[in-house]
Design goal:
Layout lengths: L2 H9 L4 E7 L3 H16 L3 E8 L7 H8 L3 E6 L1 H11 L6 E5 L9 E2 L3 H9 L3 E15 L2 E8 L2 E6 L6 E7 L2 E8 L1 E5 L7 H4 L12 E6 L9 E3 L5 E5 L6 E5 L3 E5 L4 E16 L4 H8 L4
Parallel strand pairs: 1-2, 1-3, 3-4, 4-5
Antiparallel strand pairs: 6-7, 6-17, 8-11, 8-15, 9-10, 9-14, 11-12, 12-13, 14-17, 15-16
Length: 293
């Protein structure tokens, strides 16, 4: 967002917030209860208090309540924010990520000084970061069979018993190469510190505009990760037998693929908005999380 838009947004103080916490996490639940009391003492309405996770379900009314919040407080790890990001679907609702102890790059607020940091944020001392999202479409026999929205990444990979698969890489409708590999990762800058990093891909500053293409264990050493402009469109075609090959979005949603399926990936029109405390040092986060010297 433009600086003027950010300042205008920040001038609207939070009047109502939703609290979403990682399901089956006792520490997250207890902290959420304390946070709910703290928010109410400030005269701010807490519109929704709900768990997020594999077994959590939301009614239509609950989803509408979340989407009418001025902000969302997310207690958990990065996975909690990934779920919330898809749930709100690109609406301009800033997310305050509270790290409950896991290795999190998106959850900006540590549990150790939670209320001190939140006091600064609720007083207007914060930044809003616009994060790119991915839009993935699966074509089968030239028909759309599934579509997804994700914040971190799209992964095309094999199951436990599957063999190496051939993937045709097409960028902006131009054939690039047929890649023999265990799988493919296409990530946003936000997702560059997730599976992409484990597979040897580059780290991108999270607010950059771009896409990262990273092969998983390619059988040709010359096949390397690619960083592409955010307006580019990547198509992956499964060009060999695709037994137990799946498309996974953000490591949370799976879809089984077949030979000749075409997966189209591009930067989505929708965005995710993350609140970061003023003075936050991203490189300090990298240094601590990755244990750099």
């Amino acid at each position: 967002m433009k600086k003027q838009e950010v300042l205008l947004w920040k001038s609207k103080m939070f009047k109502n917030v939703s609290i979403l916490y990682k399901e089956n996490d006792n520490l997250a639940i207890q902290t959420a209860l304390e946070l709910q009391d703290w928010i109410k003492e400030k005269g701010i309405e807490c519109m929704l208090f709900h768990s997020v996770g594999e077994f959590s379900t939301f009614t239509h009314s609950e989803i509408e309540t979340i989407r009418n919040s001025d902000a969302i407080l997310a207690l958990g790890g990065d996975g909690t924010i990934l779920s919330i990001s898809r749930l709100i679907g690109g609406r301009k609702i800033p997310i305050i990520g509270i790290n409950m102890g896991s290795l999190g790059f998106i959850t900006e607020v540590p549990k150790t000084n939670l209320f001190t940091t939140l006091e600064q944020i609720f007083s207007g001392n914060y930044e809003i970061e616009e994060r790119s999202m991915l839009h993935a479409t699966v074509f089968r026999d030239k028909q759309i069979v599934s579509q997804y929205l994700g914040l971190n990444d799209l992964v095309i990979g094999k199951g436990i018993l599957a063999k190496v698969t051939n993937f045709d890489l097409i960028i902006n409708e131009t054939y690039v190469s047929t890649i023999k590999a265990d799988g493919i990762i296409i990530s946003t800058p936000t997702g560059s510190t997730a599976y992409n990093l484990s597979a040897g891909g580059p780290i991108l500053y999270p607010t950059l505009k771009g896409l990262v293409f990273t092969p998983i264990c390619p059988h040709t050493l010359s096949v390397r990760p690619l960083v592409l402009p955010d307006e580019f469109i990547i198509d992956i075609v499964i060009s060999s037998q695709a037994k137990d090959v799946f498309l996974t979005i953000d490591g949370q949603i799976g879809f089984p693929l077949k030979k000749h399926d075409q997966i189209r990936c591009k930067i989505a029109e929708e965005k995710t908005y993350i609140i970061a405390p003023l003075g936050r040092d991203y490189f300090k986060i990298l240094r601590e999380k990755l244990r750099w010297g």
